[in-house]
TrEMBL record:
Catalytic center residues: D175, H216, S391
Cellular localization per UniProt: Secreted
GO CC term (a single one): extracellular region
Major subcellular site: secreted
E.C. number: 3.4.21.94
Catalytic activity: Release of protein hormones and neuropeptides from their precursors, generally by hydrolysis of -Lys-Arg-|- bonds
Similarity field: Belongs to the peptidase S8 family. Furin subfamily.
Signal peptide coordinates: 1-25
PANTHER family, alphabetized: NEUROENDOCRINE CONVERTASE 2, PROPROTEIN CONVERTASE SUBTILISIN/KEXIN-RELATED
Protein name: Neuroendocrine convertase 2
A matching Pfam family: Peptidase_S8
């Protein structure tokens, strides 16, 4: 992303995501964001904090003007702001502003019971890992065990056979801690890249509970980097890679500063950040990253990995058909890779959310036996076969991306997304209820509203990564805006159109799409009954919001909320875009549409011109041919 655009866009989206729905009473923590009038050293900030009865926890995102202060005399959560403590800080001549941090809910996304041969000429024969739990790791090698569909897996053996195992790549598990003394993890643990933001120390070990509630991060870590052939548990997707523990999820509430510091921690030591959590999956919450967290993510993709950009992997959500992951500002962000899950026979899990922002899928649990989950490491040196939910899906994707980065260390964060689109496979994935079918977009890419562009294929991704050439610069174009108060019909649909040149002739021209956002403001007598559809000039129809039967909001609606679709990837944006707004309700509803802004993100130049086509039937060949025709127009 060219620097001249990054901060303008950041300001736009901080404003867009600043208004969110909060379903409970507001909480206020004992943490404060303190902004100074000038640069301060760490020692100076310590002295200011001590002078007013606070403890300085350190700079925010390595800033010299913003620091995180905590006052231990205040309770960790209270219902009212502390005006006294805020005024005390503001009275200091060095302090510009002091903002007491709100507390909000973030939940772990764990399920609770209720062709590579054409790309690689010489794949060497291999031997299965000897780890005792490998036969249970059907998501790595599906032979039909436990009622699964044979060959429906991540195809990691084809990546390993190319000599790619994740060496020198670090994935940070942002969660409730990691048991870094586990015998299957300790030799792949990156202590220098780890930190505990819940307790503010360098040791992110999980807090003990009788029910092993804080096993979540350790289970996710094993999926990525459990050691091979050591006689313990199973094997990680990228078994020679490193994992870092970032403990940040183990407190009764989350704050913007904890999230921001976690996502901005050691961006040049960490390649991939894996998050298996998010706003409450209750089907009525509309929530996303706050100001500092959004700044951390944008800074990560612009500056992390020494300018190549950090990769943020996000679990799409466990709210099932009653929720929509486009209402989750983390999973629906264009700067993250949103991953959904499938079970071992190819159908979606009943807890999977659907949305147009999902890029691809991995795996969660078995079909016939719900206890046949993901086999991985557990607390205190133990192993488990019951890890599940989209919590289990995101770390598998992080492991596949670690393999791709091992194959080509020069891949940017956008390269990873392009590789995901081009190498993910439909395989045997299907919607169990028949609602969402596989559809072809305008340049021949097949997608599904549940599964994105398909299940990740590690072998194909590694093979293509080895010959990859970095995609052209990315630009952002506001394609147009409709700002007119219109009543929503109780029956039928409201259609709104924007005819755009996609900034043709300007420095920000977009000719080949990546992400598309419809930034929308509306309210309704029942927000959960609103459905939104966006149709591209090439005829691809994306459902950017589905009905959410638990959402009975009649006050907040959506305020500049950026609904995102990946379904038009590779298409040409010039022409007429159509937004359809309708109620899906058995009882009459009312509402008002206020504004729609069309944001187009992509490249001016065709992205794949320098890549050789080894398989004439591959997605790469299909899209490249379509782009070659376009470039001659």
């Amino acid at each position: 992303m060219p620097p001249r655009w990054s901060w303008r866009l950041l300001i736009f989206f901080v404003v867009s995501l600043s208004i969110v729905s909060w379903t409970g009473a507001d909480l206020f923590s004992n943490s404060f964001l303190v902004k100074f009038k000038r640069d301060l050293s760490l020692d100076e900030a310590h002295r200011v904090a001590k002078r007013h009865g606070f403890v300085n926890m350190g700079p925010v995102l390595r800033s010299k003007t913003e620091y995180h202060f905590v006052n231990h005399a205040l309770p960790p959560a209270r219902s009212k702001r502390s005006i006294t403590h805020t005024r005390k800080l503001k009275s200091d001549p060095l302090v510009h502003t002091a903002i007491q941090q709100a507390g909000f809910l973030r939940v772990k996304r764990g399920y609770k019971p209720l062709k590579v041969e054409n790309l690689v000429k010489n794949i060497q024969p291999h031997k299965d890992p000897s780890d005792p739990y490998f036969p249970y790791q059907w998501y790595l090698k599906n032979t039909g065990q436990n009622g699964g569909k044979a060959k429906l897996d991540l195809n990691v053996e084809a990546a390993w056979a190319q000599g790619v195992t994740g060496k020198n790549i670090t994935t940070a598990i942002m969660d409730d801690g990691v048991d870094y003394m586990h015998p299957d993890l300790k030799y792949n643990y990156n202590a220098l890249a780890s930190y505990d933001f819940s307790s503010n120390d360098p040791y992110p070990y999980p807090r003990y509970t009788d029910d092993w509630f804080n096993s979540h991060g350790t289970r996710c870590a094993g999926e990525v980097a459990a050691a091979r052939d050591n006689g313990v548990c199973g094997v990680g997707v990228a078994y020679d890679s490193k994992i870092a523990g970032i403990r940040m999820l183990d407190q009764p509430y989350m704050t913007d500063l904890i999230e921001a510091n976690s996502m901005g921690h050691e961006p040049n030591l960490i390649d991939i950040y894996s998050a298996s959590w998010g706003p409450t999956d209750d089907g009525k919450t509309v929530d996303g990253p706050r100001n500092a967290t959004m700044r951390a993510i944008v800074k990560g993709v612009n500056e992390g990995r020494n300018g190549l950009g950090n990769i943020y992997v996000w679990a799409s959500g466990d709210g099932g058909e009653n929720d929509d992951c486009n209402c989750d500002g983390y999973a629906a962000s264009m700067w993250t890779v949103s991953i959904n899950s499938a079970i071992n026979d190819g159908q979606n899990a009943h807890y999977d959310e659907s949305c147009s922002s999902t890029l691809a899928s991995t795996f969660s649990n078995g079909a016939k036996d719900p206890m046949t989950g993901v086999a991985t490491t557990d607390l205190y040196g133990k192993c488990t076969t019951t890890h599940s939910g989209t919590s289990a899906a995101a770390p598998e994707a992080a492991g596949v991306f670690a393999l791709a980065l091992d194959a080509n260390t020069k891949l940017s964060w956008r390269d990873i997304q392009h590789l995901t689109v081009l190498t993910s496979k439909r395989n045997s994935l299907f919607d169990a209820k028949g609602r969402f079918h596989w559809t072809m977009n305008g340049v021949g890419l097949e997608f599904n509203h549940l599964f994105g562009f398909g299940v990740l294929d590690a072998g194909a991704m590694v093979a293509l990564a080895k010959q990859w050439q970095t995609v052209p610069p990315r630009y952002h174009c506001e394609g147009g805006i409709v700002s007119e108060l219109k009543r929503l019909p109780s029956e039928g649909s409201l259609f709104l159109t924007i005819n755009t040149t996609a900034c043709k002739g300007e420095s920000s021209e977009v000719r080949y799409l990546e992400h598309v956002q419809a930034v929308i403001t509306l309210n309704a007598s029942r927000r959960g009954d609103v459905e939104l559809f966006l149709t591209s000039p090439m005829g691809t129809r994306s459902m950017i919001l589905s009905r959410r039967q638990n959402d009975d909001d009649n006050r907040d609606g959506f305020s500049k909320w950026p609904f995102m679709t990946t379904h038009t990837w590779g298409e040409y944006p010039q022409g007429t875009w159509t937004l359809e707004v309708k109620f899906n309700s058995e009882t009459p509803q009312t509402g008002f549409f206020k504004e729609w802004s069309l944001m187009l993100h992509g490249t001016k130049e065709p992205p794949y011109t320098g890549l050789p086509v080894l398989d004439p039937h591959s997605k790469l060949a299909i899209v490249k041919k379509a782009h070659e025709v376009r470039s001659k127009m």
